[in-house]
Amino acid sequence: MQAYVDTEWRRLVGNGSFRAMPAPDREPTSTMEVAARLKLTREALKLSQAALCRQTGISPQSWNNAETGDNRIAVDEAMKLCRATGVTLDWIFRGNRTLLPAIILEELARAEKAAELARA
């Protein structure tokens, strides 16, 4: 099977059917930036940590560690969050809002504005 895959790969690359994807326009972000987006998402959804954990199936300890930046959220847990809320992995790990549901974008904007006012 591996030989077939290697041969097929070479054929696709050789005849131009396959092109490498362009480099991402945004680099993965720090654990603290991911943590801030997790908290912003939870607040935009107007959920407590406990409620979000019940809704997603993520353990409260894992979520708390991810939201505070002690640990980066695992991809499996991030996928649970995506399935339950409609956010994307691109949002969680890179901050790209492109495919977020409109209602979440609106709530994120409100939450960001409130956070800005609180800091001022």
Question: Concise description?
Answer:
The protein is an all-alpha fold. It contains seven helices and no strands.
Reconstruct the topology from this structure:
Blueprint: H1 2-14, H2 31-44, H3 49-56, H4 60-68, H5 75-85, H6 89-94, H7 102-119
Helix pairs in contact: 2-7
Please describe what this structure looks like.
This protein has 120 residues and is mostly helical. It has a single domain, classed as 434 Repressor (Amino-terminal Domain), CATH 1.10.260.40. The protein is built from 7 helices and no strands. It has helices at 2-14, 31-44, 49-56, 60-68, 75-85, 89-94, 102-119. The model is unreliable at 18-23 (pLDDT under 50).
Structural class: mainly alpha
CATH homologous superfamily designation: lambda repressor-like DNA-binding domains
Distance between the termini: 61 Å
Total discrete domains:
1
* Gyration radius, in Å: 19 Å
Main β sheet profile: none
Name of the top-level CATH class: Mainly Alpha
Poorly predicted spans: 18-23
Strand percentage: under 5%
Give the tally of β-strands: 0
Q: Provide a count of the helices.
A: 7
CATH architecture classification name = Orthogonal Bundle
Helix percentage range: 55-70%
What name does CATH use for the topology? Answer: 434 Repressor (Amino-terminal Domain)
Helix and strand run: HHHHHHH
Judging from the principal axes of the Cα atoms, what is the shape?
Answer: globular
Question: Average pLDDT value?
Answer: 83
